[in-house]
Write a structure and sequence with these properties.
Blueprint (H helix, E strand, L loop, with lengths): L8 E3 L4 E3 H49 L6 H21 L2
Antiparallel strand pairs: 1-2
Helix pairs in contact: 1-2
């Protein structure tokens, strides 16, 4: 039975790892996972904000298109239709 006062060693196929080295590796792995989780959360928040901006832009374009449809020059009306269609497709595929 090993004496707890002495440092124990974990045997692997290629080398011996002390308990302290094992704990340091585990802590390093934990740091990597924590950093990745933080980055994922940051990206999720940025993604949500971008979805809000795109949805707001789409709503704004819909209002303009419906209110000023008859008063707009043909080129502007065509551009609004293109933008509205593009945003509508994007929202349908990526947000809902």
């Amino acid at each position: 039975m090993p004496d707890h006062a002495t440092q124990t060693t974990i045997r692997t196929s290629s080398s011996n790892i002390t308990d302290q080295q094992y704990l340091e590796m585990a802590e390093h792995c934990k740091d990597i996972v924590d950093k990745a989780a933080d980055e994922k959360k940051k990206l999720e928040n940025e993604n949500l904000e971008l979805k809000k901006v795109i949805t707001t832009a789409y709503s704004f374009i819909r209002v303009i298109d419906s209110q000023y449809d008859l008063e707009m020059p043909v080129e502007a009306s065509y551009s609004m239709e293109l933008i509205r269609g593009y945003l509508s497709d994007f929202i349908e595929k990526n947000i809902f």
